[in-house]
Amino acid sequence: MAWIQIRINATKQNADQISDYLMDCGSASVTFLDTNNTPIYEPPIGEVILWADTTVIGLFDASEDMQAVVDYLSEQPELVQTFDYKIEQLEDKDWEREWMDNFHPIKFGERLWICPSWREIPDPTAVNVLLDPGLAFGTGTHATTALCLEWLESLDLTGKTVVDFGCGSGILGIAAIKLGAARVIGIDIDPQALEASLDNAQRNGVAHQLEVYLPQDQPEFMADVMVANILAAPLRELHSVILGLLKPQGAFALSGILVEQADSVANVYQEYCQLDAIAEQGEWVRVSGIKN
Ligand SMILES: C[S@@+](CC[C@H](N)C(=O)[O-])C[C@H]1O[C@@H](n2cnc3c(N)ncnc32)[C@H](O)[C@@H]1O
């Protein structure tokens, strides 16, 4: 199928609205890029993060009447003054195939692999988690997830109760079960993430060991291990909730933290914990330790 895309220079104020206009025109998908062409990581609860200078990209079927799209957009109040756009014909290729080609099995530590279902499992004797990209965050390709997977892989989880706080696709919880955990509690504010986690657990044959809850519905429990890949601000704000779910001497890892945010998160937790050395991967870090 052939595609055409329109790239529109936007601002922090109007990017979200422009995205809605593109969807009104029948865009198959809308993406935000900042001026450095870095896709949005994850908006905090109830908010869409946008940069001061954002490019909004609308993807259309090549048969779309782009002049009609441009006419519609140019009449909108946000664009009537300055409408800076570029239309690009995308090379005609098998996009689905290309998208699938981008996902490969990835190894974490000595024995853990995350494998897309359409790929051959490289080592059937290893700890293999089958996981396809879906609506919920977490395929292992993002450094924040990778930092947590490596940490889980380094532990002896045999028989342990593990909390996956901000479970997304359920990747961390499922990996924990496959690494020996007896029970995993997944918590997420997004009901779609809870559904995705259960689907993925089922595909991996471990659904009977995974429970998932919205934060307001979670039962009382104390876990041996906690992994939380959310963002620095909620990790700071929720430190008493996060540590409150962990037994004394329980191990925890916090991720979703940019290098420059590491100290601000570590400072909040060090009062209640023995912290490990901070682990870095690219611009992201993991803060981990043992609760006092
Ligand atoms: C970066 S994703 C992590 C997904 C997966 N655990 C991973 O490591 O790839 C963050 C997840 O945390 C959830 N989340 C964000 N804030 C949260 C909060 N305050 N409580 C629970 N979940 C939260 C989001 O809905 C999202 O699914």
Automatic annotation (TrEMBL):
Keywords assigned: Cytoplasm, Methyltransferase, Ribonucleoprotein, Ribosomal protein, S-adenosyl-L-methionine, Transferase
GO CC term (a single one): cytosol
Coarse class of the protein's main subcellular location: cytoplasm
Record has Manganese as a keyword: no
InterPro entries (alphabetical): Ribosomal_L11_MeTrfase_PrmA (IPR050078), Ribosomal_PrmA_MeTrfase (IPR004498), SAM-dependent_MTases_sf (IPR029063)
Compartments it resides in: Cytoplasm
Alphabetical list of SUPFAM superfamilies matching this protein: S-adenosyl-L-methionine-dependent methyltransferases (SSF53335)
A molecular function GO annotation: protein-lysine N-methyltransferase activity
Keyword flag Metal-binding: no
EC assignment: 2.1.1.-
Matching Pfam families: PrmA (PF06325)
Record-level GO BP terms: methylation
Binding positions for S-adenosyl-L-methionine per the UniProt entry: 145, 166, 188, 229
Catalytic activity from the UniProt record: L-lysyl-[protein] + 3 S-adenosyl-L-methionine = N(6),N(6),N(6)-trimethyl-L-lysyl-[protein] + 3 S-adenosyl-L-homocysteine + 3 H(+)
PANTHER family: ELECTRON TRANSFER FLAVOPROTEIN BETA SUBUNIT LYSINE METHYLTRANSFERASE (PTHR43648:SF1)
HAMAP family reported in the protein's UniProt record: Methyltr_PrmA (MF_00735)
Function (record text): Methylates ribosomal protein L11.
Family: Belongs to the methyltransferase superfamily. PrmA family.
Name of the molecule in the record: Ribosomal protein L11 methyltransferase
Species this chain originates from: Pseudoalteromonas tunicata D2
Lineage: Bacteria, Pseudomonadati, Pseudomonadota, Gammaproteobacteria, Alteromonadales
Gene for this chain: prmA
